[in-house]
Amino acid sequence: MAYGASFGTLMILLTVVQPLVNAASQSVNQELSDILNELWKLDKNRLSPGTDYTISLQGKAGYVTHGSTYARDFASKPLFSYVDETKLSTITTYSCFMKLLDNYVMATGTAERITPEEVTENNQFLDAILETEVMKRAHKYLVDKHQARASQRDFKTDLYEMWFRLYHRDRNGGADSSGFEHVFVGETKFGREIMGLHNWVQFYMEEKNKHLDYKGYKASRNDVPYADDHVLNTQFSWHGLIKPVGSAFIGVSPEFEMAVFTILFLTSTSKSTTAVVNLDEYQLELVVYRHGRSIGTAYPKLLSSNNRHL
User: Fold this and answer.
1) 218 is an active site residue
2) Which end of the chain has fewer CB atoms at under 10 Å, N or C?
3) Any catalytic annotation for residue 66?
C-alpha cells in the first residue's frame, strides 16, 4: 500500500473509531462554504428526492469493527427503492460517468490495464463535465486563486492527472489504483476490506445487481437523517465485505462531486486536508488525501442535516 501502515491506521481512526463529531464545535470554512453553495445552485443535473429517486433509510446500523466480515442487517430492503434510469442515461455527464464504472479491477495489488477505449471514455467524461456551469465556475474560482491553469485544455490535463493517473496503492504488482477508481468505483484491500466507494450511482448500480447490501444508516443519537437528504453516512456489504461507515452525496451530479473535491485538493498542499462547510441545509466535513499529484481518497462526512446545526 503506497501510503504505508500509518495511512491505513489513520483511515481506520477517521472512518471507524472516531465518532460522528458535534457539528456545533467545528470551525466552519466560510470561503469554501460560499463557493460550494454557488456550485450547489448551479448543479442543474442534481436529481430530486421523491421524484427522480426514492430512498428507504430503515434502521440505524450498529457498530462493526474494521475488517469484520459480518454486520447485523438493520435494513431488509435496498437503500434505493427507485431511480429514474432514463435520466441517468440521457443526461450526458451521468451517461459518460456510468461508462467508467466497469473499467477497473476491484482488488488492489492487481495491476490495472487501461485500454485505448477506456482512455477515450475518460476523456469524454472530462469533456462533458467541463461544459457544465458547475465545472466552469469551479475552474474560474481556482484560476482566480492561482491554483489552476487558465486554459480549459490545460485544466483538463491536470484533472486527468489528478483523477485518472494510475499509481501504486498496494506495494505488490503494478499500478493498481487511481483517484477516480477509489472514490467513485470502490476497491478492496487484501480481500478483507472495502476502500472508497463514495458515489451514489455506483452504490445504486451495485445494489441493483445484488453485489451490495445496505445495512442501515449511521448517525449521531440526535441527528437522524431524512429520506430527502443529499448526504448520508451508511453501512453496507459489498461482494461479501463490510464497510462499517461509508459516506456519500446522494442525487448530486458527477460534475458537482468532481468540482468539490478538485477545489479542496488544489487549494491545499497537505497530505491530508479536512474542512467543515455549511452546504445548503447540511454541515459536512470534507476529507481529501493526496497521493502525490493525484487524489488518494475524497469523501463527505455528514455532521448535521436539516439546518439542525444553526
Assistant:
1) no
2) C
3) no
